[in-house]
């Protein structure tokens, strides 16, 4: 079936920073939910492993808010392992010796895919806020164009956590026949008021920085680093659990025996957050931060289906494995249960597990043996159902 | 939420004759919901021998992980609170294997089961067995037998009943018993035709196939 897909004239290239790059021609624009149009559309991605002859072993990994395509390779900017290094690689649950694994930078992002820092062909300058506001569905549309380009008809699995999990849900709803199995992890079927509130704090911090310049900072040779760092500091708190924060930092002082009665970073937690903020601005674009947070805020899958989440998944044959973490208060287990209930109502094949972890929302990014075992088991069973060879045969 | 409601003694038994007896009541190719599915042994058996489209609900993370690793579709959940989310008539059979006595609201659980599926299969330890009766009578202590192996202070079995108690409850729920079988302590069916009171005296466990009564026609 893959051969029946229309041939698309695209420009493909690669570089160390962005990985592989595909640029879609002007007759293949991305028309966004907001009525905008991105053309030419550029998508940067990484691929690991080999696509089999039947093109049936492809997995799409969807990254979270500030993630990128570098899931399982050393990050070109930070020099650190990829964001899902614990899960992706030879012999790992997303086994690169068995599966062809694609990880793309979302549209609106800042590491090679079209986004606010891309050059607007109409002006020759960076888009800035002239880039159309994109939604989770727009991100998924762009991914589907990439998957078409790669000649893949059906993905064996679409997996991702947090904002990546929203993309997984959107994939399953928009393209049910193209998703054999799906793993929405630590995610929600819609952004809650609290979720939107935290994102708004981050955006206001960026826009309050004098160096933001109405989004035109790139042309003026400045960057709103302070605002973006504050946004990251606030967001980072939401990724961790209160007990873990208390255990790791408590009220411990930073390199001093007593408080200095000043506004220095007396406490270790202050020092830690400042470091997180500063490290973030080195690798992320402030305008992109506005766009990706906005995409999450607009996400409400049920709203696209007459207010019924069950309707979004009606008649689905996709195998689902929904995972939450008990100390995740950003996208709590109750949000995952809402997804499970909707899938159950439609009689879908769904597994659900709440993993015990004290790591909060970020638990899906770190080594959690139970999560790894669940993922391995789910993929193994799905592979058997899909007729893929078992691990030892591959 | 952490303690499995599925009794440990039953979970750890390698081959379970009672599971085979439950499976014998299920029509091939049907849709089955196994509530309190433990490590998925029954769902696996039903998938292998009856080609059922099976789903499970299990309280313990360990049990869910084991099930998912076997390729079974299982949801972490609680029989007492989560059955209400399942659609009416979503399944052909809803199975509750050795779990009824560990629920907080056994009657409500049965009502939900008979809503979700027209048929329900329920197995439970029989508190009316002569050994249990004798133990209480002779020793004056809470009975501990092979099917009821916990001490009174740490048992997950908070709503024990006898076969006769159960039969009465089924009638009150607007359902009837299609089939029933009493099992000995090893889980093997007692293959005798006998009245209820005999089963109630000699059965260590019982399995019942229930069917929702047809709605009464209004003429």
Instruction: Work out the count of structural domains of chain A.
Output: 2
Number of strands of chain A: 15
Oligomer: heterodimer
CATH top-level class of chain B = Alpha Beta
Number of folding domains of chain B? 1
**CATH superfamily of the largest domain in chain A, called what?**
Alpha/Beta hydrolase fold, catalytic domain
Helix content of chain A: 25-40%
- CATH class of the largest domain in chain A, named Alpha Beta
- Structural class label of chain A: alpha/beta
- CATH topology term of chain B: Rossmann fold
- The name of the CATH architecture of chain B is 3-Layer(aba) Sandwich
What is the overall number of helices of chain B? 9
Strand ordering within the main sheet of chain B: 3-2-1-4-5-7-6
Head-to-tail CA distance between termini of chain B? 48 Å
Task: Write down the Rg of chain B.
Answer: 17 Å
Strand content of chain B: 15-25%
| CATH second-level architecture of the largest domain in chain A | 3-Layer(aba) Sandwich
Q: Could you say which overall geometry of chain A the principal axes of the C-alpha atoms support?
A: globular
What overall geometry of chain B do the principal axes of the alpha carbons give?
globular
Organism (chain B): Methylosinus sporium
Protein name (chain B): Methionine biosynthesis protein MetW
EC number (chain A): 2.3.1.31
Active site (chain A): 162 (nucleophile), 328, 361
């Amino acid at each position: 079936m893959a051969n029946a897909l229309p041939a698309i004239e695209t420009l493909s290239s690669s570089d160390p920073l962005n990985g592989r790059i595909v640029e879609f021609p002007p007759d293949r624009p991305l028309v966004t939910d907001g009525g905008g149009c991105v053309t030419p559309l550029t998508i940067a991605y990484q691929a690991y492993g080999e696509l089999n002859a039947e093109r049936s072993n492809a997995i799409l990994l969807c990254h979270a808010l500030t993630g990128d395509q570098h899931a399982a390779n050393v990050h070109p900017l930070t020099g650190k392992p990829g964001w899902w290094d614990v899960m992706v690689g030879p012999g790992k649950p997303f086994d690169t010796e068995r599966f062809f694994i694609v990880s793309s930078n979302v549209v609106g992002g800042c590491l090679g895919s079209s986004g606010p820092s891309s050059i607007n062909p109409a002006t020759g300058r960076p888009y800035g806020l002239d880039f159309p506001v994109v939604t989770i569905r727009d991100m998924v549309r762009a991914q589907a164009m990439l998957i078409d380009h790669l000649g893949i008809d059906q993905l064996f699995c679409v997996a991702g956590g947090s904002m990546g999990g929203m993309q997984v849900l959107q994939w399953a709803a928009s393209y049910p026949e193209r998703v054999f199995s799906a793993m929405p992890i630590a995610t929600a079927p819609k952004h809650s008021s609290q979720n939107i509130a935290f994102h708004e704090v981050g955006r206001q911090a960026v826009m309050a920085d004098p160096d933001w310049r109405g989004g035109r900072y790139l042309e003026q040779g400045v960057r709103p680093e302070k605002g973006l760092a504050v946004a990251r500091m606030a967001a980072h708190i939401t990724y961790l659990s209160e007990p873990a924060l208390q255990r790791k930092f408590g009220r411990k002082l930073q390199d001093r025996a007593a408080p200095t009665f000043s506004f220095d970073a007396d406490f270790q937690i202050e020092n830690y957050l400042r470091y997180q903020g500063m490290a973030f601005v080195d690798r992320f674009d402030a305008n992109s931060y506005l766009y990706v947070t906005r995409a999450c805020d607009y996400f409400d899958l049920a709203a696209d289906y007459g207010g019924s989440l069950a309707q979004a998944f009606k008649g689905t044959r996709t195998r689902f494995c929904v995972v939450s973490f008990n100390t995740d208060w950003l996208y709590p287990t109750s949000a995952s249960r809402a997804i499970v209930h909707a899938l159950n109502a439609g009689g879908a094949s769904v597994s659900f597990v709440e993993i015990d972890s004290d790591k909060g929302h970020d638990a899906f990014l770190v080594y959690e043996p139970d999560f790894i075992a669940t993922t391995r088991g789910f993929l193994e069973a799905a592979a058997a159902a899909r007729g893929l060879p078992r691990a030892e045969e591959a | 939420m952490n303690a499995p409601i599925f009794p440990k003694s039953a979970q750890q038994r390698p081959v379970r004759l009672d599971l085979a007896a439950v499976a014998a009541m299920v029509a091939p190719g049907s849709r089955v919901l196994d509530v309190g599915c433990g490590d998925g042994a029954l769902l696996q058996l039903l998938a292998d021998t009856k080609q059922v489209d099976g789903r499970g609900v299990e309280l313990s993370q360990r049990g869910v992980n084991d099930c998912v690793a076997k390729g079974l579709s299982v949801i972490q959940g609680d029989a007492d609170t989560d059955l209400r989310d399942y659609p009416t008539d979503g399944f052909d059979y809803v199975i509750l294997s050795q779990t009824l006595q560990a629920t907080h609201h056994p009657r409500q659980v049965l009502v939900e089961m008979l809503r979700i599926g027209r048929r329900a299969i329920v197995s439970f330890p029989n508190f009316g067995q002569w050994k249990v009766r004798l133990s209480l009578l002779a020793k004056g202590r809470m009975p501990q037998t092979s099917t009821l192996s916990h001490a009174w202070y740490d048992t997950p079995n908070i709503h024990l009943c006898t076969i006769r108690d159960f039969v009465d409850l089924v009638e009150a729920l607007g359902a009837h018993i299609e089939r029933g079988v009493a099992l000995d302590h090893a889980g093997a069916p007692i293959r005798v035709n006998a009245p209820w009171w005999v089963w109630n005296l000699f059965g260590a466990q019982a399995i019942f196939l229930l069917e929702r009564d047809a709605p009464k026609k209004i003429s």
